[in-house]
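Milestone M4 deliverable, item 7.
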Amino acid sequence: MSDLLVMKFGGTSMGSAERIRVAARLITEQSARRPVVVVVSAMSKVTDLLLDSLRKAEAGDQADLDTNLEMLSARHRECCCGLLPESRQREAINGVEALIAEFARIAKGVMMLGERPPRSVDEAVAVGERLSAYLMAGHMESEGMPAVAVNAAEVIATDAVFGNATPLMDATRTRAAAVLRPLLDQHKVPVVTGFNGSTLDGRPTTLGRGGSDFSASILAAVLDAAELWIWTDVDGIMSGDPRLVSDARVLPEITYAEAAELAYNGAKVLHPRTLAPLAQRGIPVWSKNSFAPEKPGTRILPSVDAGHGPHAVTSMTDVALVSMEPASSVVSGTRVMARALDGLARANVEILAFTSSSYRQSFCFLVRQSELERAREFLEEDLALELVHGYLKPIEVDADVALIAVVGEGMRGTPGLAGRIFTAISRHDINIIAIAQGSSELTIAIVVRRGGLELAVRAIHGEF
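Output delivered:
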């Protein structure tokens, strides 16, 4: 099906009965023209509620767990009543309660164990997306549009890294052909859960927080879709964070590489892994606003004709800078770097920026604060001998920092850009703590004090 469209709706686009109605209208408009596969997130804030419920269960807090379960049930029952005619509401509410009962069963098991096994967490949190798919398909059916809710655990095959699984594309292609193609051939709209999958032997997995985008791109790739449309609550990918930059504008087109760098460095529009499955087939992606569907959005392509210079600037505040330095020439700085990087890899910690300098071979790297404790634990364990004997200085952590990423294909081979960036920042007396730039020249990463972030972002955006 060369004209297949995959449409993905995020949590805010699924956040209420009214938003689901709007999403269903958008799906209906497109399905009248071509085959459509839909991918849905959980309703906004539901995944957080599910995770909090599992924490309550782990702590043995039955009262708060019951309160959360009632909140979950009430929100989805209300949505049923807002979406469906009265004649269908009782059956739909029973279906909602059955899914919530599955979650409650897992939470009860967590309470009995006193811990949250990763496999159980993955199975439990996917209930949010299963509820969304159930409601969307039910509403579309009630409006005369044939639709079927599909659990992505039946379609997306992954490895067994619970909580952050990686898709197995060949196996997923086989599953998609068996599960989704027959529905499309029957002119039905599959409404697939985002975020989750399963191992080859059927154990539930998830693709990491925000993984519904990734789910949609995986399905677009294995189904050889013509396009992927990702519906959010913003007008597209912008040249800067509008909360920081008053004159930020929507970018009409950007490349896969630029979009991936922006997502990796803090832009909230896409999941960082979204574009990888699409690149080989060159499937275009649109980032659109379901609250303003008349606006064109941003088109993401393998390449675009663009001028020289940066195209966007983004930032992150929930980061920490970790610095390491040998205290003795007995220790090879290069070997310390290698062991540190190996430890971070085993801890599954992402490095946002890395830089090294001086004859002492000191180095520093930036990580997310949510991963800092795990990173430090692995580093101190792997380098315990050097730390105890004083061959390595104590690991330093600075959490009062922020990351700025200046992104643009047009920066490649253009002299003077880094100087303009640094000059723009220095005009506001903001000190640059660390700098990193990859060999592709696609991104310049700059670490500054958190207090100077807003001024620095505005200065860079204004300069270009």
